DNA-(apurinic or apyrimidinic site) lyase (Penicillium citrinum), 438 residues
Amino acid sequence: MTGVFSEWYKLPMSLSELCINTTLRCGQSFRWQKIPESEEWRCVLYGRLFSLKQDSNHLYYRTYSSDALPTPPSSVLPSRATSDTENNDGKLHTEKPGDDQLVSILKHYLNLSSNLSELYNQWSAQDPNFKKKAAAFSGVRILRQDPWEALVSFICSSNNNISRISQMVEKLCIHYGPFVATIGERVYHDFPAPDALAGKDVESKLRSLGFGYRAKYIYQTAVMVSQEREKGWLNDLCNPESPAFGIEAKAGDEMKPEGRDGYRNAHEKLLELQGVGPKVSDCVCLMGLGWGESVPVDTHVWQIAQRDYRFGKSSQKTLNKATYDAVANHFRKLWGQEAGWAHSVLFTADLRSFADRLATTKKVDVKVKEEESEVKIETEVKTAVALTAPKVEAEVKNEQEKDIVKGTASKKRKAPAESIIHAGHTTETRRTSKRLRR
DNA sequence: TGTCGCCCTAAGTA
DNA sequence: ATACTTAGGGCGA
């Protein structure tokens, strides 16, 4: 089968508004494929193979069309979690030229409506640590992924790494997702719909494919979403201000330290699913449902909170429900309504695979003023390398840099005991624990 | 309410 | 080489 790419179209885009080289590999999406020896990224979205590349002034995009499988009907465009093809596609049947619809899809998926530079400025003004860390990581934007895909992807993410999660998601697409195109050796499928993963033999098949204990979670969640919930159940948990593609935006409710009511509700409902705890639920809320205040707290973020925000040391406190809510609420109060976006910037800055951003390291003495105390500490000054150069990671030069990457450095700072933040003092105790309801 | 052992796998580490 | 740990958790006791 043959096919052809469209010409490249382009959108004006600065790297501070969107850096695809960071955004597409920072662990929020797992399906984007970097073409070797090229700056090009590919992924199937809404049944179409998209291709992206970027320079300092523009984002370039094109799509691929197979001869035997022309542009899919627009009925596939609404989210896969809705197996209803008749009610939700009203806005998608408009007779727009192809490139016009492509740019709508891209602007929606890439979440381009907000001004990211302005958000970085606000977070930096509120938080010196953010300002310091974010310098080398501009253009990290939260994508609007399909809620169902986000749900399954983050069920896969437990006790796992980005590389293997990506492989598992790829297997789901190849074995259960609709075929889209073949280019060279590479076969492109879209992500499977819920009912495609609810078959009787799915669990055993996934186990044989190396999913481990996640196989049961995926199968059980697919059954619940496709058979035991109303159609559109998952999409209805979306932030009304950030709805699924093709749905009208509505006004949202009021922001609170623990998040808006709609966010709390979505978070809670997701906990009913198998294999979904607080962290996975927050990932889906943030990256699939458009709730910007969702702050997923994993072991990594927990370490960041202890290291840079004076939460109790790990030897004293473990990451439990109370500390989870305390950390998330703290970041919501610090960064505001889009706290989850800021969180992702710091998370990315600590990812091992981005060690090449810490190209040169030299020791200097810096006076850092934090709250009342002025502490003289020894710190590292990192100089960013070009953001558009996805080169092979430079070898970690010495133990010091290795520690930075692992997030185990900076035991040098000693914080006053009074300023350590304790979970019980900073958050209202929530009674919404998944386990307590059982 | 908090803590612990267990669940799967593959790559990295000692 | 072989055992152990880690990698963006969740669940039940």
